Amino acid sequence: MLKSLDLSITILYILGILVIGLWAGISHRRKSKANAAGEYFLAGKTLKWPAIGLALFATNISTVHLVSLAQSGFDSGLLNGNFEWMAAFTLILLALFFVPFYIKSGVATLPDFLEKRYDRSSRDWLAVISVVSAIIIHIAFSMLAGGIVLKTLFGLNMYVSIIVICIITAIYTIIGGLKAVVVTESIQTVVLLAGAFIISYAAFDKMGGWDSMTAVLKSNGEMDKLSMLRPHGDSSGMPWYSILLGYPILGIWYWCADQTIVQRVLGAKDENHARVGPLFCGFIKILPVFIFVLPGLFAYTLSKTGHLDISSLGLDDKGHVNSKGIYTLMITQLLPSGLVGVLVAALLSGLMSQVSGALNSISTMVSYDMYQRYRPTASDKQLIRVGKISAGIALIFSLGLLPLLNRYESIFSGINDIIAHIAPPITCVFLLGVFWKGASAPSAKLTLWIGSALGVIVFAINKLYPESFIGHIPFMMMAFYLFCACVSIQVFFSYVYPVQHTAESAELYWKSPWEPLQGKAWSGIGNYKFLSAMLLTVTAVLYYLFR
């Protein structure tokens, strides 16, 4: 249970974020057109690269990551850090290949982009899938992780505490729009990183340093926990080739084609800010392995030496330590009063930033991609009202999913398991649409329909018949196999129904591989080409060191 000082810090932080969020959103809209939909949903396209990079990171890193990456570090070592470092490659893809088309086409949503490149049917399907995935992946799973933390620390009912936090988040998100989301996310990123550094140092200090940790691992024959790239047959089900083949399918959907993430880029001031922002986020994404995953590994070695009491965690159905609560256990056992409150604030930052970002993207898609289709003459005021109502409904629906999602042993694995079955058709139509002139509108529509149906069927078989052949395929490889099937479907139907480009769609694919590098760039260190090469080099060196 938290002491009064920690509880006071937590409450003051929540109220502070509420006030700042309301002030940022309302003041921005007063300075501009009070009821302009573009101001509400896209912050009037005034965002600069630091805010975009920080907001991208904050929307991505939620309480789920703090809780579940520490859990994965405890269970399997640094392996799941691949989801952080591999993101650098997909963020480079976003900056170099996708951003120019998103900015040039002037779209407010990614479904809108698909309509310009393909047709209305593709837009409708992506809008529905994007709203559903935002509710499940970005909101419901974040609520679940936050609920576990709040239940452990406050002793409150998980659902009651989550409802209170989410209502506060919804207030400033629904009233303030994207500007409020980005301003609060920037603050929350700083708080979240500060909290993560604190717990990392506390675990490092308690363990007695890196050498002491590796000595424990060596004595237990578990040095493979420090490896990011595992051999074939590894018990984790994630050998190096599954990461190489499977992650790009998940990552391109998540970072390049998911409205909740990319909406920050769509609100950029210009193309250079839109390109440098994701690259800035890519450099920040190096940190989570050391401040989110590594503390979990330190917790594992601390428990082996008796410096961390994990008896309260209990055992799961398979007789293993139920490590879901390892992060909160570290907070309460390794930190003094006062710092515990700061860490709780950091955890709530992750929850609030994830939920606020998802609610804003849902309201944008429902207003632009659904409501405006049937009411093309709708006023900005009507669009904003519909967006606010849809955000409230999404929040309520997400709460109803919590008992179902809580069945996953690992929250992080649960998220990626679902993404692996959602992402392949979307990744396929975006990639082929941008890189292949011949990708036709009918082929995209059929790929989205058939690919999504395949994903649902395979997911259902996996859950209903876990001992079947399909049930034994790791989710990363399943994502790759589904993607290959989707590519085959789209290529086949592109020849059956040849492409008929409009004047607009003819400008939304690359004519040559070098064309993306010919756009205007800032001089010096801010040049997106230099930053891309630098990020690529740094990530490659890190993989070599932790291979």
From TrEMBL:
<feature type="transmembrane region" description="Helical">
    <location>
        <begin position="383"/>
        <end position="406"/>
    </location>
</feature>
<feature type="transmembrane region" description="Helical">
    <location>
        <begin position="477"/>
        <end position="497"/>
    </location>
</feature>
<feature type="transmembrane region" description="Helical">
    <location>
        <begin position="156"/>
        <end position="175"/>
    </location>
</feature>
<feature type="transmembrane region" description="Helical">
    <location>
        <begin position="418"/>
        <end position="436"/>
    </location>
</feature>
<feature type="transmembrane region" description="Helical">
    <location>
        <begin position="47"/>
        <end position="71"/>
    </location>
</feature>
<feature type="transmembrane region" description="Helical">
    <location>
        <begin position="276"/>
        <end position="300"/>
    </location>
</feature>
<comment type="similarity">
    <text>Belongs to the sodium:solute symporter (SSF) (TC 2.A.21) family.</text>
</comment>
<dbReference type="InterPro" id="IPR001734">
    <property type="entry name" value="Na/solute_symporter"/>
</dbReference>
<dbReference type="GO" id="GO:0005886">
    <property type="term" value="C:plasma membrane"/>
</dbReference>
<dbReference type="GO" id="GO:0005412">
    <property type="term" value="F:D-glucose:sodium symporter activity"/>
</dbReference>
<feature type="transmembrane region" description="Helical">
    <location>
        <begin position="238"/>
        <end position="256"/>
    </location>
</feature>
<feature type="transmembrane region" description="Helical">
    <location>
        <begin position="124"/>
        <end position="150"/>
    </location>
</feature>
<keyword id="KW-0812">Transmembrane</keyword>
<feature type="transmembrane region" description="Helical">
    <location>
        <begin position="448"/>
        <end position="465"/>
    </location>
</feature>
<keyword id="KW-1133">Transmembrane helix</keyword>
<dbReference type="Pfam" id="PF00474">
    <property type="entry name" value="SSF"/>
</dbReference>
<dbReference type="InterPro" id="IPR038377">
    <property type="entry name" value="Na/Glc_symporter_sf"/>
</dbReference>
<feature type="transmembrane region" description="Helical">
    <location>
        <begin position="83"/>
        <end position="103"/>
    </location>
</feature>
<keyword id="KW-0472">Membrane</keyword>
<feature type="transmembrane region" description="Helical">
    <location>
        <begin position="339"/>
        <end position="362"/>
    </location>
</feature>
<feature type="transmembrane region" description="Helical">
    <location>
        <begin position="6"/>
        <end position="26"/>
    </location>
</feature>
<feature type="transmembrane region" description="Helical">
    <location>
        <begin position="187"/>
        <end position="204"/>
    </location>
</feature>
<feature type="transmembrane region" description="Helical">
    <location>
        <begin position="528"/>
        <end position="546"/>
    </location>
</feature>
<protein>
    <submittedName>
        <fullName>Solute:Na+ symporter, SSS family</fullName>
    </submittedName>
</protein>
